[in-house]
């Protein structure tokens, strides 16, 4: 059997990260129809509630049970309103590495929710799951996502040239594809000083395996 992530919830001071459920479908569809989401993701446009329901009931569970990753709804702790989504994907269990991505609803931007959620996932991944690397890829023009990467302590490793297709509005209201670069970022356990990890005489950090 492939290793898999557990079906978990993570709490922060302001947020709860939990598995998606069908009650999230309307808010998820609305969030994914936002113009910035359309510009910087490969989400089909327009994004329908049927598409959101398929994500919640089929795609997200399949990502976890296959071992490829995990999709988590990000909600406000007090109101339970859907703030966004955090995903781990392209997981390599031998290397103990995974790639993180996130989407934040338009109404919730500017509150630090993306960095708070991403940091919570990183600490859980390194602490509980004993992973060694978290990777993040941001489109060259997506400065908001780059700021999140910097805020949580990611290190820029380089540029993948012409590696991503972004989208831009046309004069008639449609969309056109724009090829752009991807910036590759990484975060390691020692970057966060995760509890439960020791450092050897050479300064190399490694987990205290249970």
UniProtKB/TrEMBL annotation:
It comes from the Bacteria. Keywords: Transferase. InterPro entries: Acyl_CoA_acyltransferase, GNAT_dom, Ribosomal_N-acetyltransferase. Signal peptide: none annotated. Residues 15-172 form the N-acetyltransferase domain. GO terms for cellular component: cytoplasm. GO terms for molecular function: protein N-terminal-serine acetyltransferase activity; protein-N-terminal-alanine acetyltransferase activity. This is GNAT family N-acetyltransferase.
